[in-house]
Design a protein that fits this description.
five-stranded parallel beta sheet; about 450 residues; alpha/beta; two-stranded parallel ribbon; Rossmann fold
C-alpha cells in the first residue's frame, strides 16, 4: 500500500539537514572540484559514463566531496545506493546488505552501489567479506577513507580496486560553493536577503583549508545566529562563526607529509618554510619528541661535519624541550630549525656509512690486520696479536703511518662546504702519507 505521507516526511527531513548536506550536488555536471579525476575524459568519469565501475576507493581529506561523489556515481549509473559507516557496522550488517544487493540483481536486474564510509576502520576479516561479491560484480563497492589505502586496507582489496585520490578543494572551488549556497533558492539561502561581503567570503574560503563542509558550516552558523533581514554577512560575523580554526591533522598521512615537508625545507636551507611546517605540526598537536628526534637525525644526515655544531644544537633542543615543555619549547624548536636550515649542508657522513655497510653485507669480510688485533689478554703475544702496532701518540704529528684496513678504500668524501672544506684538506694529506708508506691493494681487486 503506498505511503501517502512519505513525500512530506522526506521533505521535513531534508529541511532539517545542515546546509552542507542540502547543498550536495545531484549530478556530475554540478560537482565542484576534482577535475583531475572526474573532468572531461578522465578515468573515473569514463568509468561512470560506461557503467564499468567495479570497486573504487576514494581517498582524501575530510570535506572534499567523497560521499557526494559516491551518491552521484550511483545516480549516474542508475544503481541503488546503500550506505554504511565502518565505524558503526560489523560483518552482520555487511552480509545483510550484500544479500539484499544479490536478491535485487537476481530478481529485478537492479544493480547496487555499496558505499562504505571510513572503510579503513574495517579489519581484515570484514574487508575479506566484501571480496567475493566485488569480484562477481554483485555490487559496485565505493569505499571512502582519509587514510592512505595502501597502508590502511588489505592488499587483496586494494588489488581489486581502483584508487582515486581526492585533493583539498581550491580556493576558487570553495568560493563557488559558498556563492551557490547564498543564491540557491531550493537548498541554500536564496530566498533570504543575505549579502556576503567580499572580505567575509575571502575569510571563510581561507580558513576552510579546502574543506567545503567547514566553509558551509561557518556560513550557516552566521546566518542562523543573525535573524535580522536583510543581513550583511560581514568579516566580523565570519570571524565569530569560524572561531578557532580547526586544523586537519592526524596520525596518518598528514603527520608524515608535514614531517617530510619540515625535513626537506631544512635540507633545502629554507628557514621560513621550515618554521611554517614546524608551526603546522605544533598547532596540529604533534608530539614534540617526534619533532626533536627528526631534527637530531637531520643534523647528522644532511649537515654532518659541514657544521658539527648542528648536532649539538639539535641534541640541546631535544633536551631543552624535554625539560621545559610546551608552549615555551616552541622557542627552542624554532631556534634549532632556523640554525639547521642556515647551516652548510653535507650528506658525506650518510653516504660514507651507507657505502661501508654495503661492503660489509655484500663483499668478502676484511680480516682485522694482525697488528690491530687485541693483545690485552693472556696468550695474545704467543699468537702474534698486536705485534708491530705503532702508537699514534708517539709520533710528533699524532699520525702513525701504518695499515688500518688491509685494502685501499675511500668511504668518506668531504664536500667543500663549511668545516668539511678544512677536513677534506687534512684527509687528503693523511691518505697521501698512509698510502706512501703502506700501499694497499684496491678493495675491488
Amino acid at each position: 500500500m503506498p505511503d501517502l505521507f512519505a513525500a512530506t516526511r522526506a521533505a521535513n527531513v531534508a529541511r532539517a539537514a545542515p546546509l552542507a548536506a542540502r547543498m550536495r550536488p545531484r549530478r556530475l555536471d554540478d560537482y565542484v572540484g576534482q577535475e583531475a579525476i572526474v573532468g572531461p575524459g578522465k578515468l573515473l568519469r569514463r568509468l561512470i559514463e560506461a557503467d564499468r565501475l567495479g570497486s573504487v576507493i576514494l581517498y582524501g581529506p575530510p570535506g572534499v566531496g567523497k560521499t557526494t561523489l559516491a551518491e552521484i556515481i550511483a545516480t549516474e549509473t542508475r544503481r541503488r545506493f546503500l550506505e554504511i559507516s565502518a565505524t558503526a557496522s560489523g560483518v552482520k550488517e555487511v552480509r545483510e546488505m550484500l544479500e539484499t544487493a544479490r536478491r535485487r540483481l537476481e530478481d529485478d536486474g537492479e544493480k547496487t552501489c555499496l558505499f562504505i564510509d571510513e572503510i579503513h576502520r574495517f579489519n581484515k576479516a570484514q574487508q575479506d567479506v566484501l571480496l567475493p561479491d566485488v569480484e562477481n560484480g554483485v555490487i559496485a563497492l565505493i569505499g571512502a577513507t582519509t587514510q592512505n589505502p595502501f597502508f590502511a586496507l588489505t592488499s587483496a582489496l586494494v588489488s581489486r580496486s581502483r584508487i582515486f585520490e581526492l585533493a583539498s578543494l581550491s580556493t576558487s572551488d570553495v568560493g563557488l560553493i559558498l556563492d551557490r549556497a547564498i543564491t540557491d533558492r531550493d537548498h541554500g539561502f536564496g530566498r533570504e536577503a543575505i549579502v556576503l561581503a567580499p572580505q567575509a567570503r575571502a575569510f571563510l574560503v581561507e580558513t576552510s583549508d579546502g574543506d567545503a563542509r567547514r566553509a558551509l558550516g561557518a556560513l550557516e552558523v552566521g546566518v542562523l545566529s543573525s535573524p535580522v533581514r536583510p543581513l550583511e554577512f560581514t568579516l566580523a560575523l565570519a570571524r565569530e562563526s569560524v572561531q578557532r580554526k580547526a586544523l586537519a591533522y592526524d596520525g596518518g598521512d598528514t603527520h608524515y607529509d608535514c614531517a617530510s615537508a619540515l625535513i626537506k625545507s631544512i635540507r633545502g636551507s629554507d628557514a621560513d618554510a621550515g618554521l611554517y611546517w614546524l608551526a603546522r605540526m605544533l598547532e596540529g598537536g604533534e608530539d614534540v619528541r617526534f619533532v626533536t628526534r627528526r631534527l637530531v637525525i637531520l643534523a647528522s644526515e644532511d649537515i654532518g661535519n659541514a657544521d658539527p655544531r648542528s648536532l649539538l644544537m639539535a641534541v640541546a633542543a631535544m633536551q631543552a624541550t624535554e625539560f621545559v615543555g610546551l608552549p615555551e619549547s616552541q622557542l627552542t624548536l624554532a631556534q634549532a630549525v632556523i640554525y639547521l636550515a642556515l647551516a652548510p649542508k653535507s650528506n658525506a657522513c650518510t653516504t660514507a656509512i651507507a657505502a661501508a655497510r654495503t661492503d660489509v653485507r655484500e663483499k668478502s669480510v676484511i680480516p682485522v690486520p694482525r697488528h690491530l688485533q687485541d693483545k690485552h689478554y693472556a696468550g695474545a703475544k704467543r699468537l702474534g696479536h698486536g705485534e708491530g702496532y705503532a702508537y699514534a701518540h708517539d709520533h710528533p704529528d699524532g699520525i702513525a703511518a701504518q695499515d688500518y684496513l688491509g685494502v685501499e678504500k675511500n668511504y668518506y668524501e668531504p664536500t667543500d662546504r663549511g668545516l668539511e672544506r678544512d677536513l677534506g684538506e687534512r684527509l687528503a694529506e693523511i691518505r697521501r702519507r698512509l698510502r706512501e708508506v703502506h700501499p694497499k691493494p684496491s678493495s675491488d681487486s
